[in-house]
């Protein structure tokens, strides 16, 4: 999280695996949902913040309908389907801090 010239938070994330990379570039938060459902993958994406029109977003670790959170051990490793995954705690903090329209910079 950067506010002006001050870094207010840094968090370990998981980004897209090589076959489904997270797109690099400058984007903006387009929409938010505290508990988005992915019909494509059959799971919840808590603290969802969409940043591309193709459906890429920033969210907490995916949650299966059983309540199981996937991927805590994968943070720091590119394993997602293109989204930026945050851990439990940091995802809500970023969600609460980020209004729609906030710039998102994705780089290597």
Spatial gap, N to C terminus = 17 Å
Mean pLDDT: 95
Order of helices and strands: EEEEEEEEHE
Helix run count: 1
**Shape annotation:** globular
Question: Which percent band covers the strand fraction?
Answer: 25-35%
Q: Which structural category do the helix and sheet elements fall into?
A: mainly beta
Report the C-alpha radius of gyration, rounded: 13 Å
Read across the widest sheet, the strand sequence of neighbours is 3-8-7-6-5
Which sheet architecture does the biggest sheet show?
5 strands, mixed
Total number of β-strand segments?
A: 9
Helix content: under 10%
Residue stretches low in confidence (pLDDT < 50, at least 5 long) are: none
